[in-house]
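Exercise 7 asks you to align residues with tokens for two separate proteins.
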Amino acid sequence: MTPGDAGAEPDRSRYHIAALAKGLQVLSLFDGVTLSLRTSEIAALTGIPMPTAFRIVATLEDLGYLERRHDGTVQPGVKVLTLGSAAMRGSGLVQLSDRPLRLLADATGETVNLGVLVEDRVLYLARLRNADLVTANVHVGSTLPATYTSMGKLLLAHLPPDELDRRLTDASFAPGAGPNAVPGRAALLAQLAEIRRDGYAVQDQELAQGLRSVSVPVLGADGAPAAAVNVAVSALRRPLADLRGEILDRLRATAADITTRLRTR
């Protein structure tokens, strides 16, 4: 039986290229939190022998996927950024969400975001920013701690308990967040129970001073959250009650629109 036989289920392991897999494993270490690494650190984190790690890093440098810094560490090169940008622009989820998100941004006059969960962080896939929003330098491709964001908490709330336990570590509650940031696992679990009950998540100056947001899920074909969409507002202009009124109604309608588009594409 050949790989092209109709009805055949290919044995994908037969086509596994170990060297390519190791190269991708190295690139995956640079996750938005880890910005640069030494080759010895790459070997330690991946379990790849040092001589092999050295050759992989050298190859990725030659091809432009890694760049050497003045201190001897390496960081993602321009080619990685280009691939990431192309992947997000070409994502079916991003393309299908574009019009509903723009309509939501126009209707509310506020910042609108679309994100997915990557381990214990939220990856921003789309962002339509209101110019007066006081926030950190967040852009498409940024990741933020899921524990301090409305999108992150919403998506964490729907994980199976064992998966939630695996993803949450002490590093998930890093210092430097907003004044109302959840202090630890016990407090977060109480919040997640409320989110599952209510069907939406709010963060009130947990990520940063002066920033509030509300999120709802975008559902995949299996009925589980595939992504989250939120509306972020300035705490100086919008009281918390605003997030549970018309904004939440419009947000839910937008998420339902995106969900329908995903299921009928």
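Second protein for Exercise 7:
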Amino acid sequence: MTEQRSAAPSRSLTVSVVIPVKDDADALGRCLRALSLQTKAPDEVIVVDNGSEDESAQVAADAGATVVRCEAPGIPAASACGYDRATTDIVLRFDADCVPGSGWVQIMRQAFAAEPHVAVFTGGARFVDGPRMLRTPLAAAYLGSYVLAGVAALGHLPVFGSNMGFRREAWQRVRAAVHLDANLHDDFDLAFHLGDSHRIRYVRKAEMGMSMRPFGDVRRFACRIRRGFATVLVHWPRDFPPIRWQRLLMLRAASGLRGRFR
């Protein structure tokens, strides 16, 4: 299996943060304020405006972010636009309604620096709004279900678009294969492609808050579920689970053998 290597350890890894947004100015302002309070600031912040009709682009510009306009509809296209624009070693991503913990950028950067053989890191999240008593159990159920479904379909850990990062060179390798269909689940699709030839690991302590809004709109939540199923099906038959699992096992075994004889 092809593994990605980081830059020389003596050089600090540079970091971009990509945030896709559409008509979510208030939430975007909150997340950009949290980003401005990081213990280690990112080298660049890229906000991808996916056809907003509110003040989202102005909020981003006022916060000092680089604003990129993406006319193609949907989160997959908007996210890819931001990843393409990034110029740093590491690309981090979360959504406009997320609130990163104060050490999020620093912890993610340290994870990549500590494990140069890992190309992708993903973390969890907690709810920051909604009924207080439901925040913890709903977050656990939501993310737990996502991980279980992801592992079953992928044969490895999925990536969570509200808290993830990857090496830019890994993105460049899979860019041509990634689907930009607005009806697909962008981070699930990305996991299919990155997981083929890159290691994905969970990073602890990378605190991220997220909105409970998906649970407040039944149609919106159902749309996410449909997109997840559509994303799995678009990769069949090549990535039908037993076929994909066998291929990945063979690739990993071959990679291990190559490592022994180096």
